[in-house]
Design goal:
single chain; 504 residues; alpha+beta; 11 helices; 59% helix; elongated
């Protein structure tokens, strides 16, 4: 049902009628104005480029509570100017060019992980996609708070069959949105923008973690390749010695064959190491957003930080710093704004219409006008269903945050177990196992030179030494990767689907 009031005015001019319409609308329109920054020509929506994005919410330490207040992000967005796109620098330069520069003012002796991170942040398509999503959301935020356009119409009628009487008129109509509807419409989208900011932060972290993990694997592959080549060289020298010993009758033909078998095995390990290194570098090229990346020397080693991590402390840091959690806070605030928006929907909008008619009955005539103010009466449709839906959407968003806390703890548990296990392995290898194996190899060599042990025994000890070295590399790699995952807030897999935060 619509309530309609009409006042007809005779002998009224169109300018006067337009002035009356503007005057009638202005008190209602003023209430819908979004504050501007005071800059000439500024528009109400702005976000910084993703490179300068800060968390839109300050995530509180446990326990997490509601409601959560968003800092100045929304006000900043409302008071800024428009920005049609996200500043992107896709011309990242070549790897060699970046590798030849310095990082943090220090000359580089090889390709550093910092150089690869720089390339990845500018070239990885998943980061660029997240940036584009922020830019698109900015447009939605600006559009969401705009008032509807006025309507203008023209009417012409011919009265009677003789065609001597005519009537024509001009119509001007404007819908006035009442209450906080426009502001809430914009706030809803701005909270989506804030969530997308956090999605960008999370995606950037995924890429950086992947770069660091693959870089660690590349370091390990280089060490494995170096060790494999040394083993082949030692084996070839052993064959030469074995042939000489066989010639003088010191060893049997079987012992020579055993030495040759050891070399064949070492060469197979070498080929596998070369293939593994090539695969790792192809993966590294994909992560940083390049088509190819030539194998080259790397700066750094597999040595891990001496800082001893604790599970509870790591969990608290994860909950307080995770951009996934921050995005869920933004989702909660968006749901709150949407609930308020549905509640004010029952306050009807007002439609103001002005009309001027001119009549000519063949013997003269004149103008008359009318102003109509109309609004719907919310008798049956009070937006009950939408309000109920919005309430449960808020409940769901709050439960999603609680679920995310438990998921983070669940995700941290196996990673921390990997950290503890590999940490103990590295300590054991470096403290006892490697020194003992090295000492055993040295004693066996001396015993062989004195004729106290067979050549086959020496080969077995050499194999044990090589396998121990490789196992130590494996433990170092696992420890470093576990540390990187924890430091990276469990965010990895840059080309996979984002985590538990709801994205639109």
């Amino acid at each position: 049902m619509r309530l309609k009031y009409e006042c007809r005015l005779r002998l009224i001019s169109l300018p006067i009628l337009a002035g009356i319409i503007v005057f009638a609308c202005s008190p209602l329109l003023l209430g819908q104005q979004v504050r501007h920054s005071g800059r000439s020509g500024s528009l109400p929506v702005e976000l910084p480029a993703p490179e300068t994005v800060r968390p839109a919410v300050q995530v509180a330490a446990k326990p997490l509570t509601f409601p959560v207040e968003i800092d100045g992000t929304l006000q900043r967005l409302l008071e800024g100017g428009p920005q049609d796109g996200v500043t992107q620098n896709t011309s990242s330069g070549s790897v060699d060019q970046i590798a030849s520069e310095s990082v943090a003012g220090k000359p580089m002796t090889g390709l550093t992980v910092e150089a690869l991170e720089l390339i990845a942040t500018k070239s990885n398509p998943s980061i660029l996609r997240a940036s584009a999503q922020i830019a698109a959301a900015r447009g939605r935020a600006y559009q969401a708070g705009l008032r509807s356009n006025p309507e203008v119409g023209f009417d012409f009628q011919q009265l009677g069959s003789s065609g001597r009487a005519e009537q024509y008129g001009v119509l001007v109509q404007q819908e006035v949105v009442r209450s906080e509807k426009l502001r809430l419409n914009r706030s809803i989208v701005l909270h989506e923008v804030a969530a997308l900011e956090q999605a960008w932060v999370a995606q950037r972290q995924r890429v950086l973690t992947d770069v660091r993990i693959v870089y660690t694997r590349a370091l390990r592959a280089a060490k494995q390749l170096e060790l494999s080549r040394q083993l082949v060289e030692i084996g070839l020298q052993g064959i030469d010695v074995s042939k000489q010993l066989l010639h003088i009758g010191e060893i049997s033909r079987a012992e020579l064959l055993q030495a040759e078998i050891e070399v064949e095995s070492a060469e197979l390990v070498l080929r596998n190491a070369e293939n593994h290194q090539a695969a790792v570098w192809r993966e590294l090229a994909a992560v940083i957003g390049q088509n190819a990346l030539p194998v080259q020397p790397l700066a750094g080693d597999l040595a891990s930080s001496d800082h001893d991590l604790q599970f509870e402390q790591s969990l608290q840091e994860l909950l307080s710093g995770s951009p996934e959690v921050a995005a869920l806070f933004s989702d909660i605030e968006r749901a709150r704004c949407n609930l308020r928006r549905q509640q004010v929907e029952t306050k009807p909008n007002v439609t103001v219409r002005g009309l001027i008619n001119w009549r000519d009955n063949g013997i003269g005539g004149g103008p008359d006008g009318a102003i109509t103010v109309a609004m719907p009466l919310p008798l049956w449709n009070k937006n009950q269903g939408a309000i109920r839906e919005a309430r449960y959407q808020l409940d769901a968003a709050q439960h999603a945050l609680s679920q995310a806390e438990l998921q983070l703890k669940q995700r941290l548990t196996p990673v921390f177990e990997q950290y503890r296990n590999s940490q103990e392995e590295v300590r054991r290898y470096e403290a006892t196992i490697l020194p003992k194996v090295a000492e055993t190899l040295e004693l066996t060599r001396k015993a062989y030179e004195l004729g106290q042990v067979s050549f086959t025994s020496l080969l077995l000890v050499q194999r044990t030494y090589a396998n121990t070295q490789l196992a130590h590399l494996d433990a170092q790699e696992e420890l470093r990767i576990a540390q990187l995952k924890i430091a990276g807030m469990l965010l990895s897999g840059s080309f996979s689907t984002p985590g538990f935060a709801t994205r639109r």
